């Protein structure tokens, strides 16, 4: 889809990409902390609006809630790490509820194996790189979200991959407390990996909902 078509037919997606890109470029500028915080939250907030505008089902409303909580987490984490983590924890619980409502009928053994791996490895690696038991507790919900996404009926290489990218972005955040404390890589990679994951999740779920019920908006 060209940029013009994206603006005309998917304005909320275009707005989400624009907000996320501007934030990434402008985050080191002297433009005022409040404006940067609002701009950071605008990306996922636009994805929430996209979900609500493209489908009228309960699943789309739940997706909107997930993205709205993520937007809140994006903003709060700039003020307090614990507050931001709490908002993301709530978003993971909402995401698990959505994925469990839409489980795949006959998952393959390889899918089950990866599901278990995500469920176990996510909190374990989070604890190893951060050395913080509170981070490991949060990562239980993070891993549960990714595991449920991989077992859902939504496309694995859109929604499942998006959930895995979310996990990777959080691992990079946690690694800032430990092995990558002096590395510039987390600062460069966290935001694009995280937002790409959220974008894949939102678009993959909406497209699946519209394919199964095209009469909805």
Automatic annotation (TrEMBL):
Its main location: membrane. It holds the Pfam family YhhN. InterPro entries: TMEM86B-like (IPR012506). It is found in: Membrane. Keywords: Membrane, Transmembrane, Transmembrane helix. The keyword Transmembrane applies. The chain crosses the membrane at residues 12-29, 35-53, 60-77, 83-100, 112-129, 135-152, 159-177, 189-209. It is a multi-pass membrane protein. It comes from the Bacteria. Belongs to the TMEM86 family. This is Lysoplasmalogenase. It comes from Pelagerythrobacter marensis.
């Amino acid at each position: 889809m060209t940029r013009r078509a994206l603006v005309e037919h998917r304005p909320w997606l275009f707005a989400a990409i624009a907000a996320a890109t501007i934030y990434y470029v402008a985050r080191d500028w002297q433009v005022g902390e409040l404006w940067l915080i609002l701009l950071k939250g605008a990306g996922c907030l636009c994805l929430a609006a996209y979900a609500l505008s493209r489908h009228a089902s309960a699943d789309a409303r739940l997706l909107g809630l997930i993205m709205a909580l993520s937007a809140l987490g994006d903003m709060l984490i700039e003020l307090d790490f614990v507050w931001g983590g709490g908002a993301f924890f709530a978003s993971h619980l909402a995401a698990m509820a959505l994925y469990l409502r839409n489980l795949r009928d006959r998952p393959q053994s390889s899918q089950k194996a990866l599901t278990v791996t995500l469920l176990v490895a996510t909190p374990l690696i989070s604890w190893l790189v951060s050395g913080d038991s509170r981070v490991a507790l949060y990562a239980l919900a993070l891993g549960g979200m990714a595991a449920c996404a991989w077992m859902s009926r939504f496309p694995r290489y859109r929604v499942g991959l998006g959930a895995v990218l979310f996990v990777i972005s959080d691992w990079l955040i946690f690694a800032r407390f430990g092995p990558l404390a002096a590395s510039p890589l987390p600062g460069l990679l966290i935001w694009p990996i995280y937002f790409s994951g959220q974008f894949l999740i939102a678009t993959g779920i909406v497209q699946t909902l519209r394919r199964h019920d095209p009469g909805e908006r």
